[in-house]
Design brief:
Length: 574
C-alpha cells in the first residue's frame, strides 16, 4: 500500500514537472541596454533597461526565464509598454555568489518562433553585499571563501564582477553546482558561447556621499566614455561588443592613480610603492608584447582590491589585484599577461588566454633564458599529464570533441595546454613566421575555428594539419615518447653518427627535440613523430655519444620517465 502511494506521488510529480518543464537555455540575450544606479552607502543597485532575447531552440517558446542574483528582486517586466505576468521564484545555482538566483518565469504575449526575437523592458533592484554562501556551504573556510567571492557594493569599496560571480544583469542558465567537478565551468562555457555575438550598453550612475568624496568608477568594457560628474552623480557610458570573453565588471573606490602610456594603476591610499613597482614593471614589458602581438589597442587598467588576501581577477585588459606588496619579477610576469590582452583579444579562449599565458613564457625566456620558460610551462604540464593519464586507454570520440581546445570550458586546457600549443608552434615554424601569422588576426573575422589555424598555415613552410587535428580541433591527449633504439656509426676522421628511432605511444603527434650528449657538449635536432608511430633521425656528434634525451620539456607528455636513453659501448658499429 505504501509503495503504491509512493508510485502515485511520483507519477503525479512527474506530470507536473513535464507540464511545466522550462527550457532555461532556449533564449540567447542578444542585446542589453541597461541604466544602472548604484548607491554605495545603501549597498544598493537599481536597474532599468531593455533586453532583446532570441529563441535559439528548435521549438516556439511562450515562456522566458530571466535570472538575477538572489539578493535582487524583480520589480517589473514589460513588453511594448504592457506589464507581463511573471512568477518570481528562488533557483539554487552556484553561478551567483549567493548560491541562488531570483528567477522570473515570464509568460510572453505570444510564442516566439525559433530564430524569432522579443524585446522586454525590465526593472529590478536590491543589495549586493559580501556573500560567499556558494563556497561556505561546500565546506570552504569563511575567510578563504570571502577572499575568493569578494564582490560587494559598499561605501568604502565596491567591486562587482559579472556572470560566474554576481548575476547583476539577467542571465538564463541551468543550475550550476560547484560540488560537481566541471559543472559550473561547463554551464558558464555554454552561456559565453551563446553570448559570443551579444552586445551590452550600460550607463552607470553612482550617487556621491554627503562628505563629497569623489570616488573613481572603473568599468570593464570594450568602449567607455570617461566618467563625469552630473548633479552629484558620477556617470559612465560603456559598450561591450562581445560578451563571450568579457565579464561586465565595475569597481568604485577612492583611488589614486599611477598613469603611464600603456597602463594606469589605480591604488588605495598607502599602496603607492606597490602601484609604482607594478606600473614600472609593466612599462618594461611593453616592447616585448608589442613586438609579438602589436601595439596595445586599449590602455591596460589595474585596480587595487580592499582585502589584501583577495584573489586577483583578470578579464581582458583589466586586472583587479591587491597592491600591498609587489615583487618586480612577479609584476613583470603578471603584466606580460595583462598587456597581451590589451594588444590582442579573441572570442576563443584558447587564443585569448592561450596567447596571454604564452606571453608569460616568452617574458621568462626573455628575462632568464629558455629553461626558465620551460620550467614555468612544466608547472602547467603536470596537471595536463595527470588529466592525460586519467583518460588513457581509448578516449571516447565525443570527449575528443568536447575537450578540444576549440570547445573546452576547462581552464587547464584553454590556459595551460593552449600555452604549450603556442610554444610548440613557435618552435615548429619559427618566431618571425608566428608573429606574421598573429598580426592579421581580427576577432571580428573569427567566425570559424579554422580561421587562426589557416593564418598560421599560410606562414608555415610545412604541413601542420595533423598538428591542429591532434592538439586544437580534437583532444587526443598527450604524446608519450621513448627511444626505441640507437645505433652509433664511427665516421671519419673523428666523428660519430647516431641513428635514433623514437616511438610515440600517445595518440597526439608532435615535433620534439632530440638531444645527443657527449663529453663536453650536446647536439639537438627536431623530429616529427606522429601519434602511435615511430620516427628516425640521424645526429652527428664529434665525440663518443653518452646519452640521448627525447624532449626538452617543450612538448607536454603523459610520461617523461622514459625519455633518457644511455648509449652502451656495444651500440657502436665500427
Ligand atoms: Zn587572461
Amino acid at each position: 500500500m505504501k509503495l503504491h502511494w509512493v508510485c502515485f506521488l511520483w507519477v503525479l510529480c512527474a506530470s507536473v514537472v513535464n507540464g511545466f518543464s522550462l527550457d532555461r537555455e532556449a533564449f540567447t540575450f542578444t542585446n542589453y541596454d541597461l541604466n544602472v544606479r548604484i548607491e554605495p552607502e545603501q549597498q544598493r543597485l537599481g536597474v532599468r533597461g531593455k533586453i532583446t532575447m532570441r529563441n535559439d531552440s528548435a521549438t516556439p517558446q511562450k515562456i522566458a526565464v530571466l535570472q538575477i542574483s538572489s539578493s535582487l528582486d524583480w520589480r517589473s517586466i514589460k513588453a511594448g509598454g504592457k506589464p507581463l505576468q511573471f512568477v518570481s521564484q528562488p533557483y539554487t545555482s552556484d553561478i551567483d555568489h549567493t548560491g541562488s538566483l531570483s528567477e522570473a518565469v515570464v509568460t510572453l504575449p505570444e510564442a516566439v518562433p525559433p530564430k524569432g526575437a522579443v524585446d522586454l523592458e525590465i526593472a529590478y533592484e536590491g543589495v549586493i553585499v559580501l556573500d560567499a554562501t556558494r563556497l561556505t556551504r561546500i565546506g570552504a573556510p569563511e575567510a578563504d571563501a570571502t577572499s575568493s567571492d569578494w564582490d560587494q557594493i559598499s561605501s568604502k569599496f565596491t567591486g562587482v564582477r559579472g556572470v560566474g560571480y554576481v548575476a547583476w544583469y539577467p542571465v538564463a542558465t541551468e543550475d550550476a553546482d560547484l560540488s560537481a567537478s566541471t559543472n559550473l565551468f561547463d554551464i558558464l562555457g555554454r552561456w559565453k558561447t551563446r553570448e559570443s555575438d551579444s552586445k551590452m550598453h550600460i550607463q552607470i550612475a553612482v550617487s556621491s556621499n554627503d562628505e563629497g568624496d569623489r570616488p573613481e568608477l572603473l568599468v570593464n568594457a570594450t568602449n567607455c566614455l570617461t566618467a563625469h560628474e552630473v548633479q552629484h552623480e558620477f556617470v559612465a557610458d560603456c559598450t561591450d561588443q562581445s560578451l563571450s570573453s568579457m565579464v561586465p565588471t565595475f569597481v568604485i573606490a577612492n583611488y589614486e592613480v599611477v598613469d603611464r602610456p600603456a597602463i594606469a594603476v589605480h591604488y588605495l591610499r598607502g599602496h603607492d610603492s606597490a602601484a609604482t613597482t607594478y606600473a614600472d614593471a609593466a612599462e618594461k614589458v611593453v616592447p616585448l608584447i608589442s613586438e609579438w602581438f602589436g601595439p596595445p589597442r586599449s590602455k591596460a587598467q589595474t585596480a587595487d582590491l580592499a582585502d589584501p588576501n583577495a584573489a586577483p581577477f583578470e578579464n581582458g585588459p583589466l586586472l583587479l589585484t591587491s597592491l600591498t606588496s609587489t615583487d618586480p619579477k612577479l609584476a613583470g610576469l603578471v603584466a606580460a599577461h595583462q598587456l597581451t590582452h590589451a594588444s590582442v583579444s579573441s572570442p576563443r579562449p584558447w587564443i585569448n588566454e592561450g596567447l596571454a599565458h604564452f606571453a608569460q613564457a616568452l617574458y621568462l625566456e626573455h628575462q632568464t633564458g629558455r629553461q626558465a620558460a620551460l620550467d614555468y610551462m612544466r608547472l602547467h604540464q603536470s596537471s595536463l599529464s595527470a588529466a592525460g593519464k586519467k583518460q588513457a586507454g581509448s578516449p571516447k570520440p565525443e570527449d575528443e570533441t568536447i575537450q578540444s581546445l576549440i570547445n573546452t570550458a576547462d581552464e587547464e586546457l584553454y590556459r595551460g595546454k593552449a600555452m604549450c600549443v603556442w610554444w610548440m608552434l613557435r618552435d615548429m615554424i619559427g618566431e618571425q613566421a608566428l608573429k606574421k601569422a598573429i598580426a592579421p588576426y581580427h576577432p571580428e573575422l573569427d567566425k570559424e575555428p579554422s580561421y587562426m589555424p589557416r593564418l598560421i598555415a599560410a606562414q608555415a613552410q610545412k604541413d601542420l594539419e595533423w598538428f591542429f587535428d591532434d592538439w586544437v580541433y580534437r583532444d587526443r591527449g598527450l604524446p608519450d615518447f621513448k627511444v626505441a633504439s640507437a645505433f652509433t656509426h664511427k665516421t671519419l676522421p673523428e666523428g660519430y653518427m647516431v641513428t635514433i628511432t623514437v616511438d610515440n605511444q600517445g595518440a597526439a603527434g608532435a615535433e620534439v627535440p632530440i638531444t645527443v650528449k657527449f663529453a663536453g657538449g650536446e647536439i639537438s635536432k627536431r623530429l616529427v613523430v606522429r601519434s602511435k608511430s615511430s620516427g628516425v633521425i640521424r645526429i652527428e656528434v664529434p665525440k663518443t655519444p653518452g646519452e640521448i634525451v627525447v624532449n626538452d620539456g617543450s612538448v607536454p607528455e603523459s610520461d617523461t620517465t622514459n625519455n633518457v636513453f644511455k648509449i652502451e659501448a656495444g651500440d657502436t658499429i665500427k
